[in-house]
Amino acid sequence: MSGVDLVVTDLAEAATLARGPVPRTGPAMAEVDRIPRAALAVADGRVAWVGPERRLRRAVRLRTGGTTVPGRGGIVVPGFVDAHTHAIFAGDRAFELPLKAAGRSYAEIARRGGGILATVRATRAASDDALVRATAERLTRMAAAGTTSVEVKSGYALDPTGELRLLRLLPRIARRTGVRVVPTFLGAHAVPPEFAGRADAYVEQIVRRMLPEVARRRLARFCDVFCEPGYFTVPQAERILRAALSLGLEAKVHAEEFVVSGGARLAARLGARSADHLLRASAGDRRQLAAAGVSAVLLPVTAFAVTRERRSPAREMVDAGVPVALGTDCSPNTWVESMPIVLAHAVHGGRLSPAEALTAATVNAAHASGLEEAGTLAPGRPADFTLFPLGSVDQLGYRFDAIPTVVYRQGNAISSRRLRQYV
Amino acid sequence: MSGVDLVVTDLAEAATLARGPVPRTGPAMAEVDRIPRAALAVADGRVAWVGPERRLRRAVRLRTGGTTVPGRGGIVVPGFVDAHTHAIFAGDRAFELPLKAAGRSYAEIARRGGGILATVRATRAASDDALVRATAERLTRMAAAGTTSVEVKSGYALDPTGELRLLRLLPRIARRTGVRVVPTFLGAHAVPPEFAGRADAYVEQIVRRMLPEVARRRLARFCDVFCEPGYFTVPQAERILRAALSLGLEAKVHAEEFVVSGGARLAARLGARSADHLLRASAGDRRQLAAAGVSAVLLPVTAFAVTRERRSPAREMVDAGVPVALGTDCSPNTWVESMPIVLAHAVHGGRLSPAEALTAATVNAAHASGLEEAGTLAPGRPADFTLFPLGSVDQLGYRFDAIPTVVYRQGNAISSRRLRQYV
User: Fold this and answer.
1) Superfamily of structural domain A80-368
2) Which residues of B touch A309 (CB under 8 A)?
3) How confident is the model at residue A310 (pLDDT cuts 50, 70, 90)?
4) I need a labelling partner for A97 at 20 to 30 A (CA). Which of A128, B190, B251, B353 fits?
C-alpha cells in the first residue's frame, strides 16, 4: 500500500477517460470511463489511484502532513487541454464589432485596418514584460476555468526576430501561471506589410530563416499555416510544412474556415497532427482526415462568432471517424478563455453529447497537441484535474457557465490563488 | 459636502446609463453615458455621487469607518437586470441533449417525456427547502456574474397550490441571496397533464382560481403566457392577460419563439410590458411593438441553443425603435446564469454594439421588469453595481467570459462571500 500526498473524497463521479492507451489516430469518440462515488489519490504530482471511494482506504495511505480535499458531492475530470489558441498578443480588437455587426467579412475588415495585421502592430510594439503579463493573465483565467494545458501559437509578429521572441517568452509564461504550454510556430499567419504582394518571398523567409532557427533552438513542437485565400495557398502551405517536417516539427493546418481552401486534404496528405476550423470541410475531406488519422481541432465559439452559420461540424466529424478535439481559439478575434463555454457550444451548436465533448476537450485534445501523457486520470499520469460543483459529468456542456471549485496541475492547486492577482 | 460610507476609486471608466429619466417606452438604444477615470461614492445603500475621480474629494467626504474599494483600473457598470428567467425549478434535463442533437423539435421532445412537463414532475415532488436551496444557488451564481436584479417566473407546478407555492418561496430566496427578485406568474406555461386535451378548462382555472389569489396576496407583479402552438392560443392568452390586467398585474407574452404565433401583436394590443423571445417576429410585428412601447425581451443564448438559426433579432428590433432588454432565460432547457455570456451572444449573434448590449442588460432590462429605480448609476438610485477587471466598457460583450471582481447590491458586496458556499 503506497503512501500518497493528497486525496480527493466525496465525489459524485470521476471521469477518467482512461480506456487504454491513446492510439496514433486518437481514441474513439465514445463514452468516457466513469466511476460513481469516487475518490482520487495523488503522489509526487501524479495520479496514484482513482476508483470507488469505498476502496480508497485499502488502496492508499495518506502520508503524514498530506491533504484531504473534500469533493462535496461534485465531479472530477482531467484538466482541460485547450488545443488551439493565439493567446500571446497585445491589445484588443473590440473596434471591429460595428463592422462585424454590419455584415463585413473577415477580409473586408482586414482591408479597413482590422484583422490580424492590427494585432501585429500592437504586438510588435509591446515590451517583453507587457506581453508576458497580458498572456499570463489570460492563461491564469483559463486555468481558473479548468484548463491545465494549452497550445499557443506565435503569429502576431511576422518577422524573424519577433516570431522567435513570442516563442521564447512562452516558457516564462508557463512557469508564471503553472499551465503547461505547447508552443506552435505560426509565422504563416498572414503576409506582413513588408511583403505585401510578395507572399512567396515571405514564404522563403519563413523556410530559410525562421524555421531552421525555431528547430535549432527547439522553440516549437508544431508548425501551423493559415491556408485560406488572401493568406497562404495550398502550394505555399505545403512548402512551409514540408520544410518543418524535415526539421522534426509536426504539422497543423488552419483549413476550410471561410471557404473551401484545400487545407484539409493537404493535412491528410502530409500526415499532419491536426486540421483546424474545418467549417467548410466536405464529406470527402472528412473521409481523408479519418483515413490519415488527422485530428479535427474544432473551435465552436469562433464558428458562432465569425460566420453566419452557428455550428461547428463536430457531429459530422465524429460520425466520419475523425478524432475530434476542441479549443477556444482565444485571440483578439474571438476572445474566449473558458473551455466550459467551448463545451457548451460543442454540445448545443456542434451536437456532441456531453461525454463526447469532454473526450474532445481532454484526451483527444491532448493527442491533437502531442501530449500523450495528459488528458486522462490514470495511475502514473500527471495529476492534472478539475473539480466542478456538478452532480454528474453530463452537466458539463449542458450548462453554459460551469465554474470549477479548484484546478490542480501535477498535484498543485493552480487556480484560486493566482486568479486573485488578476480579477 | 455629504458624508458617504464607501468610495470606489481608480476606475478606468464608469458606465452610468443615466441620461435622464427612463421614459414609459424605455430609453433610446444609444451610447451609454461614460465617465473616464471615474470614482463612485455610496451612502446609505444608494449612489451618492459618480464622476471624474479628480473631483471626488471636493464632492464627498468618507465617514469614519467608511470603506475605500480600489478599482485597480477596471470599470464599473450598473448591476445587471436579468429580465427573463424560469429560475425556480427542480432537477435538470441533460437527458434531452441526444434528442436535440438528433434534430428533434421542442414539441417532439415533449412528446417523448421531456420538455416543460418533465420539470413539472420534478418540481411538484421537491420540498420547499430543496427548491429554495437549488434556486438560491442559481441566484448566487448569477450574482457572482454581475446580476443584482432578476425576474423569476413560476410555471413548473401548473396547479393552484403549486404555482402559489413557487411565488411564495421567492421572497425567501431573495433574502437569502441578496438579489432583488421580480416575481411573474406563469401558470400558463403549459397545459398540465390533468387537463390534457382540455386547455380551455385549465385557462378557466387560471382565471378563476389562480389569478385572483395571486393578486390578493400580491405574489406577482406580472402575468405571462406561453403563446405558441401546443401551448396557449392567442384567444386563450388574451383571456388570461385581460383578467390579469383587470386585477392590477401587468402583462408579458412569450411570443413568436418557434413559429409565428400572433403573440407579439397581442402584446402590442394589450399594452403589455414586454414581448419575449420574438425569433420569428416580422417587420410588421416590430412596428406594432415600437408604436405600443412594448419592450422586446431577447434571449440570445436560447436562440443559439434551441433553434437552427443562431441569431436573436436584436439589431432589427433596435433599428425598428423597439426598446430591447436581455435575459438569460435560465431554465432546464437553456441553463445559463451569466449575463456576460448573454451580452457576448447579443453582440456576436444579435449584432448589438457592446454599449447597446449593456443598455439592454441594465436600464432597459430594469424598465422591462418594472424596476424604474434600477439599472442606472445616478445619485439617489440604489447602489447596485459591478466591477469588472476590464479596461473599457467596450470589452463587455466583446469578450465571452468576463468575470466580475465584486458585485454590490444597495451598497453591500453580495457575490464573493456567498459564492464560497456553493462552488
Assistant:
1) Metal-dependent hydrolases (3.20.20.140)
2) 310
3) low
4) A128
